[in-house]
Amino acid sequence: MKHNQLSGLVRILLLLCAAALALVLFVPMWRIELDAPQYPEGLTLLIYANKLGGNVDIVNGLNHYIGMKTLHASDFLEFTLLPYFISFFALLALLVAIFARPKLLYTFFILFMLFAIISMVDFWRWEYNYGHELNPDAAIIVPGMSYQPPLIGFKQLLNFGAYSIPDIGGWIFVSVGLIGLYAVVVTKRKKFSSTAIVTVITIFTSTLFSSCNTGPEALKYGTDNCFSCKMTISDIRYGAEIVTKKGRVYKFDDSFCMLAYLKTKELASSEIKNIYMTNFTGSHQLLNVEEAVMLQSNVLRGPMGGNIAATDQIDSVNKMKDKFPGNDLLWSEIIKQ
Hints:
five-stranded antiparallel beta sheet; 2 domains; alpha+beta; flat
């Protein structure tokens, strides 16, 4: 390989990037899914480079009731400009692959990352404006309530759960960014050790997906309500939580309520990422039920009559048995009861 030329592998990857970016013009870039009891099949808003798709009319009807502006592609300058920007980057990736100049590659990567950052900031601004600039004469007004959808991940908006995530076009952008980063560090590999390259890519990837976190959410005792019985979560020792793969959080004041809800099958097991129960002892942190040890005792009395407590180790269960005689069980045994 010549000193001032890109490697054959990098050029092939850039050709693939050019083709993939051209495809973005025809597939949805982002999707916002809405689910609520009255719409069990869910609603979807698809955002393309030049238009809106999915259940736009239904979403606009709902927005009207709460005072949000209706969505029309003609109202967004972005839908006019985006196809040109995407075409520009597809053409630039093609030129980098043809001429194989490192400086041209660096220019492509820097411009592409700036475009990605500006686009996300603009998307957040758009969501903020639509979620906060409400019609004061709307049919439904909740004082202090705003309806800004999440940038990435899940957010509860009244009785609607809103889930925002990249669609095919968005994931293509992510892939092009990662390939661009790889191409840059490989081209500059004389200045980077292999460890440094891996570190840079790892930091980039973890930062990119940090907002897609689907971990547990701290229970706010005295404030949060149980998803099942609607009672305020008041006893710190018995709280429980279900987190879905999309990041939606279901909070419960007692394992009894959580187990009863799981048995309804309203939430498919394939949708569940993790289930948590509060550590009965210590700092009362949330424990993954698959890693916790359970104590079932008729002496235990949760807010809704539950008789199960979770701990992080068998020693804690043995100490608890002095006060709460019972049996130590695994979650797999409890869920079968």
